[in-house]
Amino acid sequence: MSDIFDLIIQVQPEHIDGLGHVNNVVYMQWMQEVTTAHIEAIGLGLKQYHALKHAMVAVEHQVQYRKAAFLDDKIILRTWLSDLNSLYSIRQYAFYRFEDQSLLFTGLTKWACIEIATGHPKRMSPTFLQAYQPLDADKNPYDFSLNQNCA
Predict the structure, then answer these.
(1) Domain of residue 93, CATH code
(2) DSSP symbols for 32-86
(3) Please, what sign has the CA dihedral across residues 35, 97, 22, 140?
(4) Burial level of 93, CB count in 10 A (0-12/13-18/19+)?
(5) Each residue's pLDDT tens digit, 122-147
(6) Which of 87, 62, 66, 83 is nearest to 75 (CA)?
(7) What average pLDDT score do residues 52-58 get?
(8) pTM above 0.85, yes or no
(9) Domain limits at 98?
Protein backbone atom coordinates (compact mmCIF):
# COMPACT_ATOMS: atom_id res chain seq x y z
CA MET A 1 0.00 0.00 0.00
CA SER A 2 1.07 3.53 -0.70
CA ASP A 3 1.41 5.89 2.20
CA ILE A 4 1.36 9.57 2.97
CA PHE A 5 4.53 11.32 1.82
CA ASP A 6 5.75 14.62 3.26
CA LEU A 7 8.41 16.98 1.95
CA ILE A 8 9.54 19.96 4.04
CA ILE A 9 10.36 23.23 2.30
CA GLN A 10 11.01 26.77 3.48
CA VAL A 11 9.50 29.71 1.61
CA GLN A 12 12.25 31.61 -0.23
CA PRO A 13 12.28 35.18 -1.62
CA GLU A 14 11.74 33.87 -5.17
CA HIS A 15 8.43 32.28 -4.07
CA ILE A 16 6.97 35.65 -3.04
CA ASP A 17 4.89 37.79 -5.39
CA GLY A 18 4.08 41.51 -5.46
CA LEU A 19 1.45 41.08 -2.74
CA GLY A 20 3.99 39.71 -0.26
CA HIS A 21 2.87 36.08 -0.18
CA VAL A 22 3.65 32.88 -2.07
CA ASN A 23 2.54 33.18 -5.69
CA ASN A 24 -0.17 30.75 -6.82
CA VAL A 25 2.06 29.35 -9.59
CA VAL A 26 4.60 28.28 -6.96
CA TYR A 27 2.03 25.91 -5.43
CA MET A 28 1.78 24.16 -8.79
CA GLN A 29 5.58 23.81 -8.86
CA TRP A 30 5.47 22.39 -5.34
CA MET A 31 2.89 19.83 -6.48
CA GLN A 32 5.40 18.63 -9.07
CA GLU A 33 8.30 18.65 -6.58
CA VAL A 34 6.52 16.57 -3.94
CA THR A 35 5.22 14.17 -6.61
CA THR A 36 8.72 13.67 -7.99
CA ALA A 37 10.16 13.14 -4.49
CA HIS A 38 7.40 10.63 -3.70
CA ILE A 39 7.83 8.53 -6.85
CA GLU A 40 11.60 8.51 -6.35
CA ALA A 41 11.07 7.35 -2.75
CA ILE A 42 8.89 4.43 -3.86
CA GLY A 43 11.45 3.44 -6.50
CA LEU A 44 9.52 4.42 -9.61
CA GLY A 45 11.08 7.69 -10.72
CA LEU A 46 12.19 9.08 -14.08
CA LYS A 47 15.00 6.55 -14.54
CA GLN A 48 12.54 3.68 -14.08
CA TYR A 49 10.02 5.37 -16.38
CA HIS A 50 12.56 5.37 -19.19
CA ALA A 51 13.57 1.76 -18.52
CA LEU A 52 9.91 0.66 -18.58
CA LYS A 53 9.19 2.88 -21.62
CA HIS A 54 6.06 4.37 -20.08
CA ALA A 55 5.35 7.19 -17.67
CA MET A 56 2.65 9.03 -15.79
CA VAL A 57 1.73 12.51 -17.06
CA ALA A 58 -0.62 15.08 -15.58
CA VAL A 59 -3.90 15.49 -17.46
CA GLU A 60 -6.01 17.46 -14.97
CA HIS A 61 -5.46 19.61 -11.87
CA GLN A 62 -7.92 20.87 -9.29
CA VAL A 63 -6.57 23.30 -6.70
CA GLN A 64 -7.87 25.33 -3.78
CA TYR A 65 -5.88 28.12 -2.15
CA ARG A 66 -6.99 28.37 1.48
CA LYS A 67 -4.51 30.61 3.33
CA ALA A 68 -1.43 32.59 2.38
CA ALA A 69 2.15 31.47 3.01
CA PHE A 70 4.90 34.01 3.66
CA LEU A 71 8.66 34.38 3.47
CA ASP A 72 10.54 31.97 5.74
CA ASP A 73 7.44 29.87 6.55
CA LYS A 74 8.26 26.20 6.95
CA ILE A 75 5.75 24.30 4.79
CA ILE A 76 4.95 20.60 4.72
CA LEU A 77 4.07 19.44 1.21
CA ARG A 78 1.94 16.33 1.69
CA THR A 79 0.81 13.94 -1.04
CA TRP A 80 -0.87 10.57 -1.33
CA LEU A 81 -2.59 8.45 -3.95
CA SER A 82 -6.36 8.18 -3.55
CA ASP A 83 -7.51 6.19 -6.58
CA LEU A 84 -6.10 3.96 -9.30
CA ASN A 85 -7.19 2.04 -12.37
CA SER A 86 -5.23 0.59 -15.29
CA LEU A 87 -4.87 3.95 -17.08
CA TYR A 88 -5.15 6.65 -14.42
CA SER A 89 -4.11 7.49 -10.90
CA ILE A 90 -5.42 10.25 -8.67
CA ARG A 91 -2.91 12.03 -6.45
CA GLN A 92 -3.99 14.45 -3.75
CA TYR A 93 -2.10 17.21 -1.98
CA ALA A 94 -2.41 19.10 1.30
CA PHE A 95 0.18 21.78 2.05
CA TYR A 96 0.28 23.15 5.56
CA ARG A 97 2.37 25.52 7.67
CA PHE A 98 4.46 23.53 10.12
CA GLU A 99 4.33 26.05 13.00
CA ASP A 100 0.55 26.28 13.39
CA GLN A 101 -0.65 23.39 11.19
CA SER A 102 -2.74 25.80 9.10
CA LEU A 103 -3.96 24.19 5.90
CA LEU A 104 -2.76 26.47 3.09
CA PHE A 105 -3.58 24.55 -0.06
CA THR A 106 -5.32 21.42 -1.29
CA GLY A 107 -5.13 19.91 -4.72
CA LEU A 108 -5.74 16.88 -6.85
CA THR A 109 -4.05 15.70 -10.05
CA LYS A 110 -5.30 13.06 -12.44
CA TRP A 111 -2.30 11.28 -13.95
CA ALA A 112 -2.47 9.17 -17.12
CA CYS A 113 -0.10 6.41 -18.13
CA ILE A 114 1.46 6.92 -21.56
CA GLU A 115 3.97 5.17 -23.78
CA ILE A 116 6.98 7.50 -23.83
CA ALA A 117 7.90 6.93 -27.49
CA THR A 118 4.45 7.79 -28.85
CA GLY A 119 2.70 9.74 -26.11
CA HIS A 120 -0.29 7.43 -26.52
CA PRO A 121 -2.24 6.09 -23.55
CA LYS A 122 -0.96 2.78 -22.21
CA ARG A 123 -2.21 0.45 -19.53
CA MET A 124 -0.02 0.52 -16.44
CA SER A 125 2.43 -2.32 -16.08
CA PRO A 126 2.32 -4.52 -12.97
CA THR A 127 5.31 -2.51 -11.69
CA PHE A 128 3.23 0.67 -11.79
CA LEU A 129 0.12 -0.96 -10.37
CA GLN A 130 2.09 -2.35 -7.42
CA ALA A 131 3.88 0.92 -6.68
CA TYR A 132 0.92 3.29 -7.10
CA GLN A 133 -1.48 1.92 -4.53
CA PRO A 134 -4.12 4.22 -3.00
CA LEU A 135 -3.87 5.23 0.64
CA ASP A 136 -5.59 2.90 3.10
CA ALA A 137 -9.09 4.18 3.89
CA ASP A 138 -8.36 4.13 7.64
CA LYS A 139 -5.54 6.70 7.31
CA ASN A 140 -6.42 10.38 7.59
CA PRO A 141 -4.10 12.46 5.39
CA TYR A 142 -5.35 15.64 7.07
CA ASP A 143 -4.03 14.59 10.48
CA PHE A 144 -1.06 16.93 10.75
CA SER A 145 -0.08 15.85 14.25
CA LEU A 146 2.60 13.59 12.82
CA ASN A 147 4.95 14.25 9.96
CA GLN A 148 5.15 11.26 7.68
CA ASN A 149 8.58 10.19 6.39
CA CYS A 150 9.66 13.83 5.88
CA ALA A 151 12.36 14.23 3.28
Answers:
(1) 3.10.129.10
(2) HHHHHHHHHHTT-SHHHHHHHTEEEEEEEEEEEE-S---TT-EEEEEEEEEEE-S
(3) positive
(4) buried
(5) 999 999 999 999 999 889 999 998 66
(6) 66
(7) 96
(8) yes
(9) 5-131
